[in-house]
Amino acid sequence: MKLSVDIAGVTLKNPVTVASGTFGSGMEYGELVDLNGLGAVTTKGVASVPWEGNPTPRIAETYGGMINAVGLQNPGIDVFCSRDIPYLKQYDTKIIVNVCGKSEREYVEVVERLSGESVDLLEINVSCPNVKEGGIAFGQDPKALAHITEEVKKKAKQPVIMKLSPNVTDITVMAKAAEAAGADALSLINTLTGMKIDIQRRTFAVANKTGGLSGPAIKPVAVRMVYQVAQAVRIPIIGMGGIMRWEDAIEFLMAGASAVAVGTANFHNPYATREIVEGIRAFMEEKGIEDIHEIIGCVK
Fold first, then answer.
1. pTM value?
2. Residue 130: its pLDDT value, please?
3. Does residue 20 form part of some domain?
4. How far is the C-alpha of 82 from the C-alpha of 87, rounded, in Å?
5. By residue range, what is the domain housing residue 286?
6. 75 exposure class (CB count in 10 Å sphere: 0-12, 13-18, 19+)
7. From start to end of 32-93, where are the E strands?
8. Counts for the chain of helices (H) and strands (E), in that order
9. Which residues contact 217 (CB under 8 A, 6 or more apart)?
10. Which residues are catalytic?
């Protein structure tokens, strides 16, 4: 039985990775989850310098998910290269590094720094605020998205995955812009912008007022967007958004994703990724499916 998939020339032993920001760099989960069993580990976002993130409270539970406004707190690229990469290299899994920045220069600095490191893929988080454009996210303007994709591709030694924001009018416009600018793959969806109000305290549940909604509440939106993008581009897609069980992962694969990323489920069930890999394998055995590509994009 073949579970391996190809993402921009990089072979993953199975189609399951984790969503950035929900798994650290694997160290937090290493005692609970055998990282050798994952197709890849996607790291928390890393910037050119340390980021403190947003003020607290940063996380709030909501119906069917959670809202987070952590603000991409991270120790910066130097600590990441000296601590996180050596840790992940102990395991037989691919390494996808999520890159964040507040300007084109910051993204490029991280990409250049990673050019000499033994990591497999770069996932560019274009939901960061573009400070030079008044705070609008790179991923909400097709021209800004295309430009940052082009600049990153000029310096990247590894294949580039552009992580798309769902907070746009037409996700296919953004996907086509990234593909035309040279993206090797896409990942979607990032979180939906949401808000929760604490009625007892008469204030916002998170200090940032708004945050990113994730979890099963957003899955139908994510599946729809993955399907739309799969019809619009030729490059591979990593699908994500509310995957809690193996059945959810199968939906994304059938919609056209070549791989899936598990996010919020890791907080609810630290064993979720392992169970999802096992569930996909069992489903294939039950249905007599020899190659996972038989179900990838099978729904037209």
1. 0.96
2. 63
3. yes
4. 9
5. 5-294
6. middle
7. 40-42, 59-62, 65-68
8. 9, 16
9. 62, 63, 64, 65, 242
10. 128
